[in-house]
Design a protein that fits this description.
With about 425 residues, the chain is of the alpha/beta class. It has 14 helices and 22 strands.
């Protein structure tokens, strides 16, 4: 059970939070276990069984927010428009609609300073700011991290009141580099615009992730065309030999082989692609990777990370983890099917070369039982680990996944759309 407790002096906020929760419910997010109540403090308090409570203070709730020990202090402009930046927020502080030179930003510190460029948004009034705060409270109660709460609340500010943001143009832009805000994500781009090769076919098919060149060879012989070598131990004695052997096999079978993490060795031995997690991007040289012509896949765990990494034009986006998994320690909670579908809807609107919509790879706890529902969300590929490596008959499992990915409503809709497009192009040719 989750409780959202609202100060009695601001009990009118209850209706705004209820509306925000109902909007989330319309997207498929469950609000059944969320109750509203009255806070004994001047802050909005979110209590969840078995978890530390969260609390939000704001100048919209109480004039003196500094004296209230809260998880987040959220400061809104006192008048229509923007507030001036006097100092960068310290941990736990959030500044909304801050003017910095010619830009307007939402800035917060959750241990790391982050910001969203909201310059294209309409100037908020008091009602819009109240709604913004209530969105943050409701999203926190739904277990979104604060970076996604800020990103979604920023998107909700740009659409009508009864609408969930689903288009790329609805959302604010995460700030990658800004000297005045002292934000530098750590990605070494040497001030260059980077981009990576696009996939001609967005449907990447089944995407096994395995830990040895032996498994790579076994899967290639079974007809797999997209796969990843993920060796967890950087001290493995034959690390480079294994990577070089896997890359050689990938070339031999004309497959799209991605190397997880070891980007220098991937470049050295001419790999087709590299896959990096969010934490690995910080230690990589994106300019060098871009100049090498290598394909790049990046992991994401939510709205903020997704909108951040599309600015460096990766080859595909991995979404996860979808279900609980034991294959690695995860930095986030399982996303589930509803959030996966919402991410996919957004991704389908993001420019990708001359087209729209990035290839996506769903990953994390996917097996033959869960695969049909995952595939129906519209993702381009299913990444699997134990479903194949622990199978008695990997060939049979691969065939079963293939049947799922070639008999789904999603694929039929794609085929119908392609036929309609071909017919339209043909009709246009005849008219000319």
């Amino acid at each position: 059970m989750v409780k959202i407790l609202i100060p009695s002096s601001r009990i009118e906020f209850t209706g705004h939070i209820q509306q925000s929760l109902l909007l989330a419910q319309e997207q498929g997010l469950s609000i059944d276990d969320i109750e509203l109540g009255v806070s004994p403090t001047q802050s909005i308090v979110i209590e969840a069984e078995g978890k530390p409570s969260l609390s939000l203070s704001s100048n919209l709730l109480c004039d003196d927010i500094e004296n209230d020990a809260c998880t987040f202090h959220i400061q809104y402009p006192n008048e229509l428009g923007s507030q001036e930046l006097d100092a960068l927020p310290t941990e736990g502080n959030v500044l909304v609609s801050v003017k910095v030179n010619d830009g307007i930003y939402d800035i917060w510190n959750d241990g790391t300073l982050k910001a969203l460029d909201i310059s294209e948004s309409d100037a908020p009034d008091l009602a819009a700011n109240i709604q913004h705060l209530c969105h943050i409270a409701s999203l926190l109660s739904l277990d979104f991290p604060i970076e996604d709460c800020m990103t979604l609340a920023g998107g909700l500010r740009n659409v009508s009141r009864e609408t969930w943001p689903k288009s790329f143009h609805d959302f604010p832009t995460p700030v990658l580099e800004n000297a005045l805000l002292d934000i530098k994500v750590g990605w070494s781009t040497r001030s260059h615009h980077v981009k990576f090769p696009y996939h001609a076919d967005k449907n990447l098919g089944l995407y096994p992730v395995v830990d040895s060149a032996e498994w790579i060879e076994r899967l290639l012989k079974l007809g797999i065309k997209t796969l990843q070598l993920r060796i967890k131990d950087p001290q493995q004695p034959d690390l480079e030999q294994s990577i070089a052997r896997a890359i050689e096999l990938g070339h031999q079978y004309k497959a799209n082989l991605f190397i997880n993490d070891y980007w220098q060795l991937a470049i050295k031995h001419g790999a087709f692609g590299v896959h990096l997690g969010q934490e690995d991007i910080e230690e990589s040289d994106l300019t060098l990777l871009s100049e090498s012509g290598i394909h790049l896949g990046l992991s994401t765990h939510g709205y903020y990370e997704l909108l951040r990494i599309v600015q460096i034009n990766p080859s595909y986006i991995a979404l996860g983890h979808i279900f609980p998994t034991t294959t690695k320690v995860m930095p986030s909670k399982p996303q589930g099917l509803v959030r996966l579908a919402l991410y996919q809807q957004l991704i389908d609107t993001i420019p990708y070369g001359d087209n729209v919509g990035y290839p996506t790879v769903a990953i994390g706890g996917i097996d033959l039982e869960t695969a049909p529902k995952v595939w129906e969300t519209g993702v381009s590929s299913l990444a699997v680990v134990r479903a194949i490596t622990l199978a008695d008959d990997p060939k049979q499992v691969i065939q079963s996944f293939d049947q799922i990915m070639h008999s789904s409503p999603q694929l039929e809709q794609t085929k119908q759309a392609e036929k309609m497009l071909e017919g339209t192009m043909l009709e246009g040719s005849v008219r000319v």
